[in-house]
Amino acid sequence: MATDEERARLQQQENLEQLINKKLSTTDMLTVYYSSEEESNHNRGIYCALIPNSKVETIISNSSWDFLPGSGHPYYDNDKDTPKYYHYGNDNGIEPFIIDRNFNEIHPSHKEINEEFRLFHNLYHDTKTNKYLKINDSDDTEVVAIIEENKISIRLQEIREFLTAKKMHLSIQFDYKEFSLLSLEELNLSSKQDSKQKSNELHCWSLCIVSGENAPQTNYKSFSTLRGKKLIKPFDKMPEKTKKYADFIIGVDDNGNKIEASCNYNLLGKPADYLTPVCFKKTVLEKYYNQSSKFTVEDRSLRGPSWGLIIDNLHKDKVCVWLGDLGRDLPCYEEQLHWRSHNIAPNGNMSETFLASQLGCKFNESEQPDHLFIKNYNLLMQACNDCLDFQLLLQLKEKDSHCLTIIRIPATEEQLDFDEIILALTKILIDSINEKQLKKIITSDAQPNINGSINLLEQAFIVLKVKDYKRYVTFLRNLQELRSSGTAHRKGKKYNKIIKELGSEDSSLIDRTKNIIEQANAYLIFLKNIVENVLSATEPA
């Protein structure tokens, strides 16, 4: 055992550095509770309390703890003369930041973060990870607190904001004990009790090094106790949350230089007014498509959990937005920067359909195949509700509902996007075929041994004497084969053959996707007509 290292450990210089002198950033996670596991040579604890600003000078005058674990519970003193209710068990103004919950071992004990703090920041408790989350202006989650078995950490930014509102300081109380198998003589330390105390306006601590005969644990010849507290002060004033505004490209001058304007809708006038078109690459929407549980991209609209933006997404190669809407409706500067990163110089005008709905108060249907797909799918569902007691295509389960958002004209020539769209189309149009109901139709015609959803559908068309169904059955078989040969397995000659049969062999992936979605639209319209004009007539009155 290195004597020098053991002496330094007993003098607790490293612990002091971490507890007192370590500089903290507002983004750091601060330990507000800690209890060391059973270790052979040390015992460490941290516990916090909220201190009124008016009591800071008194609190910092000595190293003793002002608030003990287990304190801070509501208490009612039923005194006959002056009964009184104590919110935190006392009337000295000191409040708990971490609350001990104990149930006499009938239920597991645990620690809770101050309820007022959790409500002040509207924190969500993720019970799976035991973390507290905050929803920021971009509707993203940020980890504010982490609960572990022997440790609780909370981000300093939120702590100081809370302290500012409460007009309080946070007292980080610590008690660190280090035990040694070497005597004070062997460590070249004084054989007498060696005690030090130091304080300033934000911390106070004492270090006591004594011989092992006074140790709370046996077999040790010496030990030291570092006890004290460090205060975390509030901000001078609550941080201001002023909205910033990004500049966007709105044109190009005669010298080829880009003209930019702020999207601050309160200041618009010259060189740009509120209704100045701003253009973006279609890839600007990929972020939202890829988070379909949070965002919804529809015909002329983008919606998040707490905000929405009107968009002109009716173009083949771009997305357009009014300059004023970017500043008014995007929730924060960071979201504006996302759009700015996809900003391009103006290329043509807003679409006529968009302008008619925005300025002419005339809502025309989108002609984009992906927008029509959602419309036709919903119309088929509605027709089944109106005419039948079952759905021809089973509704997607919650974990598959994102498939509808995948059906879109891709923004790039990425094979991955094409493959995902094919998988989604197959799940919606083929895997969701209601085989149980089709078998009921087929059984009536003594055809019980047919297997496979497409085969069942084809036989049902035959039984129902449906005309012109073959091209739709062929489309479904090609789509299923494309999924099998192109996404589930390595691509080869069979894949190329199916692409050719779908009529898009020589086209780009974007045009190929458009062609397939157009065929899917025709199929959905065909099914709707079957439901309204054929199946409805066979339903019992």
Average pLDDT level: 88
Radius of gyration: 35 Å
Number of domains: 3
Helices and strands: which structural class? alpha+beta
Mind summarizing the main beta sheet? 11 strands, antiparallel
Q: Report the β-strand fraction as a percent range.
A: 15-25%
Separation, N- and C-terminal Cα atoms: 93 Å
| Individual helix count | 17
What is the oligomeric state here? single chain
Which geometry do the CA atoms define?
Answer: elongated
Uncertain runs:
none
Q: Could you estimate the helical fraction of the residues in percent?
A: 25-40%
Number of strands: 23
Protein described:
- The model has no long low-confidence stretch (mean pLDDT 88).
- 33% of the residues lie in helices and 24% in strands.
- Helix 12 crosses helix 15.
- It contains 17 helices and 23 strands.
- The chain has 541 residues and is of the alpha+beta class.
- Strands 1, 2, 5, 8, 9, 10, 11, 12, 13, 14 and 15 form an eleven-stranded antiparallel β-sheet that branches. Strands 22-18-23 form a three-stranded antiparallel β-sheet. It has a three-stranded antiparallel β-sheet with strand order 19-20-21.
- The chain starts with a helix and ends with a helix.
- It has three domains: 3-232, no CATH class; 247-359, no CATH class; 369-538.
